[in-house]
Amino acid sequence: MTSPTGRRTRAARLRLPVALLGATILAATGALLAPGTAAHAATPTRTIEETVEVPAGPGLPDTIPLDTTLYLPATTPAPAVLVAHGFGGTKASVDADARALVDRGFVVLTWTARGFGASGGQIALDSPDFEVADARALVDRLAANPDVVQDGPGDPRAGVTGGSYGGALALLLAGYDSRIDALAPVITWNDLGQALFPNAAAAPGALPADTPARGAFAPDGVFKRGWAGVFFSAGLAPGGGPGGAVEGAPDPAEEAATPAPTGAPTAPNVPATCGRFTAAVCTAYTEAATTGRLSPATAELLRRSSPASVTDRIAAPTLVVQGEADTLFGLDQADATARQIAAAGGTVRMLWYAGGHDGGAPDQRVRDAIGTWFDHWLAGKGDPPATDFGYTVASGVRTGGDTPTSRTVEAPAYPGLGGAPAVSTEPLPLEGDPQVALVPAGGNPAAITSLPGLGGALGNIGNRVAAFTAELPGQSAVFRTAPVAAPLLVAGAPRVDLAIARVPGQPAPDEAVLFAKVYEIASDGTRTLLGGAVSPVRVAVPADGSSAQVAVTLPGVVAPVEAGNRLMVSVGTTDQGFAGTTTPAVWQIGLGGAEAGGALTVPVVPGEAVTANTVPAGPLLGIAGVFAAALLATVVARLYRRRVGHRAPSGPDGAPVDGTDGTADGSGLPAPRPLEIRDLAKTYRGGFKAVRGVSFDVERGMVLGLLGPNGAGKTTVLRMLMGLIRPTAGSIRAFGEPVGAGAPVLARIGAFVEGPGFLPHLSGLDNLRLYWAATGRPNEEAHLDDALEIAGLGGSVRRRVGTYSQGMRQRLAIAQAMLGLPELLVLDEPTNGLDPPQIHAMREVLQRYAAAGRTVLVSSHQLAEVEQTCSHVVVMHQGTVVAAGTVDDIIAGGGAASFTVDEPARAAVVLGGLDGVRAVAVDGEAVHAELNGTPRASAVRALVTAGVEVRSAGPRRRLEDAFLQLVGEEPHR
């Protein structure tokens, strides 16, 4: 997603022009498969730029040009993927996505849709006669391309993906063209009429509660004028967007070189006010914007541009990705698409992520899932991807970069889909008598709950700033639950039954237009609008004084509700994002009858929290979470005392106590290794293999460094070692005992993984004491003084941890890991935040710790520090071990050696004469040579035999050089 990067004041952000902000965010649906264009800037990819002529459309003469780019992988023929861009963008918007797919071995075709950028024609909103026909013509070209794998005459093996506007195009293309073999639509619509004219009302009990986010999709909806205006304004400006194509931030030089359309109509009899839209789309928008109603003609136009019109004939495997922060296309749109394709017998997988038109681009989990989907269904790689269901839960914790943190939950299947059991629900009784709510004349002032692209952000600001309140006095009825007794994770669309009636003697039209939403209310009164979204309702109200009974489907959300907090249902009469009623009215709004029970019904989808996306373990363990960690430590400690009480204890110097021989049980048999890892593997659902066949041993007395670039699998290995996640295959044994969640042997391991977590209102000393007390072990076994010496915090150890710097927290966390002097110490990036003197001190502490007979495992990016601290290293790359051994062996592995001699010139001749030796160079008294497999000892022997005095011999490289060579990168000189 494209988003502002510079910081503004809150008020300044709210003053951004809505159309510009919304268009930017609506258009920014690139980076579906890749982190960004820069990540692939250096990838050598062959590209072919071509202008393709396609039919202008029914009733139009001649052809129009489409601006296309074909990306070719290193090996062809290969399957192809079409990548469609979002509304207001161009083919440049999805360049990074295309390159990511090329890196996976696919031919990729991108193009600028008609009406945008350098392509001709007019915008027809993914019409089958125009944009879909264009895409089918591009499939024809792939069928004639020898670089593309062919399944038969005229039938290329092809997939399609895209976000928002491009996602709908992907679905429609698959419905109209059976040659599409797989697709991955992202944050898009199912029914464009319902997306722009939603109505969340249904008769009580009439709507099945089978899937988590099923929407009512009732007729005669309420015009979503805010987002619809964004659509239309994006097609008025030159280039198809505000100030040009806004998605993906194309290169200005490229834009300057592209002839920009003037915005004038390109077909006869089309008013200039229509910009680049077809006359039919322009007429439909004008009518909706002026009347606020959906006419039969507009309904038919939007139906033909809706995937719902073809989902019953999509046979290609479909990965449906939808954002949880999306006031444009909510979770109900994806739910409908998945249900319809599955009902027709298609293969469907559903993924939700913490983003969308209001929230951000797909995360790495989604990108990997899309790539894996195409890998199998197009290239035949691996087993069929799982059809489980994953969603993301935002934690509310933010990192130092102000990035929201989250975790991923995966369930075996999307409830109610393809034979899976229906979704579980939990009824929460609501409190509140019927209340009166009025519609002011003209519908003004109107509540502000969301604006295009801002979504929940503005709703939450509105809860705190009176000038932007989301609930105006007298314009809403509210109903509250009791405080929830336990944490509740809402995953889908809650429901509530309402009764709407006229107030005797007060004005009221024949129908009520209302806006329903759900807030979480914290114990301090703070309100959070779940999903930042509202559900509009249009319902006919009887004139005889009886009430209209209606079941309202509230916005689909993923929302963790803290124990002790309440949920509040608010039903308002106005909202600035929609075209509500302008006629003055007064309504009585109450909870539904006895059949409904006056409850808010929330969907719950249990699953396994398989990974933390951006959540550091420390903040989660801090505050309340530390008590859960303490409880776990207590249980482990008790099991530890029961299971390993026979083990001979050791003193601070590592020497066995009580005169034992230092073996496991005093028998004289060798003690088990501190750590044995065999064929360890971890594959996440979706097929991503984080760790593959990792094996290594750690011996007593070692300081072993675990090295690897980001994504190598180091932290995954450490998390499996600590029992935090389960391996897919292989085994881990510590001191001869298997490691798993809650294993007693974990009490013999001290760990600092993924960040420290402390109670900020306590001192460093009190935090250490509290942690040790939670283990249940005697105070004298803590060796607290040793830990405090290690921390080196001086008098600051008595200050509140909330005042500590990052380095101080780091030192305190390492001291905590060393409490009790564990036999195996596992540290992840222990020198982060430390200054050079502190790093030097840490090095000496770790070396002394291992020298006393214990073992240290360090994962670090500080290669120079590892070289000076560790005795052994294991190097990982792409989930596997690529090298293991002593530091000296790894450094010398490439054969670069240096010799200090008395006769350098003569030594150079001798070394140059050895078989295989090359690149001999003299540097003062030193001679450097690439031995290329010749043992260093043999080279020394040759020099001595030739009468050359060898004063020293050793490797020439640094650990950094060896590391970069092992992971496939060249060192920068």
Kindly report the average pLDDT value: 80
Oligomer: single chain
The description of the largest β-sheet is: 12 strands, antiparallel
Low-confidence stretches: 1-31, 34-43, 239-267, 396-404, 456-469, 612-667, 969-973
Q: What is the helix content?
A: 25-40%
The overall strand count is 41
CATH class of the largest domain: Alpha Beta
What is the radius of gyration? Answer: 33 Å
Using the coordinates shown, work out and report the CATH topology of the largest domain.
Answer: Rossmann fold
Total tally of structural domains: 4
**CATH architectural designation of the largest domain:** 3-Layer(aba) Sandwich
Structural class: alpha+beta
Helical stretch tally: 25
Q: What global shape is seen?
A: globular
CATH H-level superfamily of the largest domain: Alpha/Beta hydrolase fold, catalytic domain
Report the sheet-strand fraction: 25-35%
Cα distance spanning the termini: 36 Å
Describe this structure in words.
The protein is 26% helix and 26% strand. The longest helix has 19 residues, at 625-643. Residues 1-31, 34-43, 239-267, 396-404, 456-469, 612-667 and 969-973 have low confidence and may be disordered. Helix 2 (18-27) packs across helix 7 and helix 18 (784-791) packs antiparallel against helix 19 (806-818). Strand 11, helix 12 and strand 12 form a beta-alpha-beta unit. It has four domains: 10-334 and 353-364, Alpha/Beta hydrolase fold, catalytic domain (Rossmann fold, 3-Layer(aba) Sandwich); 425-604, Galactose-binding domain-like (Jelly Rolls); 616-888, 3-Layer(aba) Sandwich (Rossmann fold); 895-956, 2-Layer Sandwich (Alpha-Beta Plaits). The strands form seven sheets. Strands 9, 14, 15, 16, 18, 19, 20, 21, 22, 24, 25 and 26 form a twelve-stranded antiparallel sheet that branches. An eleven-stranded mixed sheet has the order 1-2-4-3-7-8-10-11-12-13-27, sandwiched between helices. It contains 25 helices and 41 strands. It is globular. With 973 residues, it is α+β, with helices and mostly antiparallel strands. GO terms for molecular function: hydrolase activity. Keywords: ATP-binding, Hydrolase, Nucleotide-binding, Signal, Transport. Residues 675-903 form the ABC transporter domain.
